[in-house]
């Protein structure tokens, strides 16, 4: 990192000039020993105001199944974790949860799950149609890797967006974490989603074992080439029932640096202040909103199922209901002098 030889000031100047990202100047902005954090966050906050304005977009998160065919080394939902109780909302429950979100004022919901093949192309398509025909919600899907025909069916049914984090673009690290997955296939999923006209979301975790600032810099360059329009980043939080239970995990500060650098590189993107940030620090999401983020994804999953969607331990809001979360987050946003957006929050397509 120091060997890169570029000072923080020079690196920040590159970022603020809006150049195509380069490892040479991204790395010093991401590496802790180099960074003047308050200046970096202030620069990102200004870029956020200019790029996407003051309003914060809310997406209601519906965690509709915790069954998963995959065994990702970091995740509490991995198939080899037999200690969690598995659940799957019925199609009617999913539609009703979305409708409830709409009555709470949400303009957009995210349907997220493990890779649960019970939700065939057809079954989820019917759910999407039912939500679209009874509400005015924008729909984001986050159901992992599926074949192109399935993504196509869901897009035709009316899904607007898809979130699939690349997690890391480092081939060795990706392979070490994903016994079932192939990095090139995951990239191919994102290319297919882009071709199908989804608003494209991806992202990564910070603090993965062996991950470096240079790796994160290369992730950012790849996301820029991809044309990612929503980028979710959060700290890796070790889960006790996974092979990575003794890992150190990510920090709020490293994630804030990444959010800030992403905002400088992607002035028009939607960047969530993630729940994982709020789980590591009581004001983690607020701090992200002041370092470049402009989206929050409050949980609208029925309260009785929330604790079972334990991707990582210590998740916030497990005992709360959707109405409470909506009020709580609105208060947090307005306390920052920001407003809650009233539109659907579709992506700003100025460059694509
Ligand atoms: N099955 C889908 C969606 C659910 S997982 C998928 O994998 O895309 C959603 C995200 O949770 C993952 O992309 C990953 O970045 C994040 N995640 C998983 N385990 C985590 C952990 N231990 N700490 C923090 N984030 C985690
Ligand atoms: Fe399954 Fe997603 Fe967790 Fe991997 S990260 S085990 S695909 S829920």
- Terminal-residue CA separation: 32 Å
Describe the strand arrangement of the main beta sheet, using strand numbers.
2-3-4-5-6-7
Main CATH class: Alpha Beta
Q: Mind telling me the C-alpha Rg? A: 19 Å
CATH superfamily annotation: Aldolase class I
Give the CATH architecture.
Answer: Alpha-Beta Barrel
Q: Structural class of the secondary structure composition?
A: alpha/beta
Overview of this protein structure:
The mean pLDDT is 96. The strands form two sheets. The protein has a six-stranded parallel β-sheet. A three-stranded parallel β-sheet has the order 8-1-9, covered by helices on one side. Helix content is 42%, strand content 12%. The two termini are 32 Å apart. With 352 residues, it is of the alpha/beta class. Helix 4 links the parallel strand 2 and strand 3. It has one domain: Aldolase class I (TIM Barrel), CATH 3.20.20. It has helices at residues 8-16, 23-30, 37-52, 91-103, 121-134, 148-157, 171-177, 183-195, 213-226, 252-265, 275-280, 284-289, 303-306, 322-335, and strands at 55-58, 60-65, 108-113, 138-142, 161-163, 199-206, 230-235, 295-296, 339-340. Bound molecules: S-adenosyl-L-homocysteine and iron/sulfur cluster. S-adenosyl-L-homocysteine is lined by residues 74-75, 112, 114-115, 142, 144, 164-165, 167, 205, 234, 236-237, 239, 276, 311-312.
């Amino acid at each position: 990192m120091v060997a890169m030889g570029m000072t923080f000031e020079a690196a920040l100047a590159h970022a603020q000039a809006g150049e195509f990202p380069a490892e040479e100047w991204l790395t010093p902005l991401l590496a802790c020993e180099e960074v003047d954090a308050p200046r970096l966050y202030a620069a990102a906050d200004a870029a956020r105001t200019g790029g996407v304005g003051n309003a914060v977009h809310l997406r209601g998160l519906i965690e509709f199944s915790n069954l998963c065919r995959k065994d990702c080394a970091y995740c509490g939902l991995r198939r080899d974790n037999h200690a969690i109780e598995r659940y799957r909302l019925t199609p009617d429950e999913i539609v009703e949860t979305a409708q409830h979100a709409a009555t709470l004022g949400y303009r957009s919901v995210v349907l997220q799950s493990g890779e649960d093949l019970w939700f065939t192309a057809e079954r989820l398509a019917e759910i999407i149609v039912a939500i679209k025909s009874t509400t005015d919600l924008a729909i984001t899907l986050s159901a992992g890797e599926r074949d192109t025909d399935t993504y196509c069916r869901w897009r035709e049914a009316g899904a607007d967006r898809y979130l699939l984090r690349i997690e890391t673009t480092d081939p060795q690290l990706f392979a070490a974490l994903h016994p079932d997955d192939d990095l090139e296939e995951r990239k191919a999923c994102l290319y297919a989603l882009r071709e199908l006209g989804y608003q494209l979301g991806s992202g990564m975790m910070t603090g993965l074992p062996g991950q470096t600032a240079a790796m994160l810099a290369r992730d950012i360059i790849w996301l820029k080439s991809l044309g990612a329009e929503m980028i979710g980043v959060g700290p890796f939080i070790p889960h006790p029932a996974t092979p990575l239970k003794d890992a150190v995990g990510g920090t709020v500060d490293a994630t804030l640096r990444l959010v800030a650098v992403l905002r400088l590189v992607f002035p028009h993107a939607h960047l969530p202040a993630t729940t994982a940030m709020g789980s590591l620090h009581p004001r983690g999401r607020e701090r992200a909103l002041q370092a470049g983020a402009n989206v929050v994804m409050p949980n609208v999953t029925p309260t009785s199922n929330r604790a079972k969607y334990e991707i990582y331990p210590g998740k916030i809001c497990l005992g709360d209901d959707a109405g409470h979360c909506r009020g709580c987050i609105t208060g947090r946003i307005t306390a920052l002098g920001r407003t809650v957006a009233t539109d659907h929050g579709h992506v700003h397509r100025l460059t694509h």
